[in-house]
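just leaving the lab so this will be short. below you get a single protein, a line of residues and a line of whole numbers that encode the local backbone shape. id like you to explain what the token line says about the fold, in plain words if possible. thanks a lot i owe you, the record is right below:

…
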Amino acid sequence: MAPISKECDFLVIGCGSGGLACARRASGQWGAKTIAVESKRLGGTCVNVGCVPKKVTWNAAAIAETLHEAASYGFQIKETAPFDFKTFKHKRDDYVHRLNNIYARNLSKDNVEYLHGRAHLLDKNSVQVTLDNGTRETIRAKNILIATGGHPSVPKNIPGAELGITSDGFFDLETLPKRVALVGAGYIAVEMAGMFHHLGSETHLFIRQETFLRTFDPMIQESIVDEYERQGIIIHRNSAQQKIEKLDGQPGWMRMHYTDKTAPDGSTIDLDCLLWAIGRSPEVEDLGLDKAGVKQDERGHVVADDYQNTSVDNIYALGDVCGKVELTPVAIAAGRLLGNRLFGGPEFKDAKMDYENVPSVVFAHPEVGSIGLSEPDAVAKYGRENVKVYRTSFTAMYYAMMDPTEKAPTKYKVVCQGTDEKVVGMHILGAGSSEMLQGFGVAVKMGCRKRDLDSCVAIHPTSAEELVTMK
């Protein structure tokens, strides 16, 4: 084995949100000698090809929506030039680069040594890091954290699949596609379909079943599918893709062969962008998990308990590489708690992440928010006789000035359990849902009852008041 070139208390492999949070807590607050290793850009998926640039793009799409709706309020807006996607893209890149630099400064401020390279476990305490210049460092660490995240999956059995891009490639696009197809039914496909559509692309969404967002409450699934179709997004149900091929004489264009509900015998569509959003895989390639004895599940995720312990007593794992709750704030919270438990003293010996009642949002058009159990899951857990559901559907006041065909839905559902009507699920769809759910999420996390919602005086006129006035 190569000679040891560095030693530390804590080696963090992966500088996404969770890894950075844990490294900074261990070193900056508790003084542990910490080294952090990243092979790509600081900030991981969220900052570089996820939450942050996605929300910036969603903002642009929301502005496009508002400009379209402004006429209903009497504004006559004349478009003198089309949306400048290229300028927008480069300004978005600049913003992300500023965040990368901020993360680097924060590591330095918290005395975390940062190495840019690819890490490979040699045994339970030793890691070899291949740096950008090809040289190698061998690090001996008392504790190791695996926080390498994940990457988008691409189908392996469809000829020509490599002609498509993934959500990572979405942020590399220099021009807005004229006609785009997205394949997938999760939040990434739904969010990006909405953004493409409202920024001006002809948008096709290919799903395997009848609805998308199938892990969400049925009210959410059915409502957002109907709304996307109302807006003009073309949804291909019960679809499958056979092959993709380049179009001769049309650079950048391709032809996708597929079947769907309306074309069970097969059809084709010509595209200048195909985006695969069929799921994500853990970033474990070349990590050497087997050499250290770290167990993985059947999908390759690192197996870790609620304390982030793996099968090896000094190796821990958190975030998307574990495949548990793949959300940035979850990884950050888990990272800080782990840093406290490992280095913060005996008062933190039981610190761990609570993975129940984690609020989540889909930045669709309109937004979707959810916390807790869906209605079917609550019924399965508690029995139909022990579940009571409150729901409301209405038109938000924002749409009062618009023609009926232009009005987007707002729908809320509160799922309660037992005679005490403990709120075990809350599902909301409509403008402002992302900001709204953060506050209501605190109430659900605290174990609120329906009567607690009822006791809060409504703020009028708002959409949120409907959550405290349900009958």
About this structure: Residues 85-109 form the longest helix (25 residues). The longest strand covers residues 136-146. The mean pLDDT is 97. The chain has twelve helices and 20 strands.
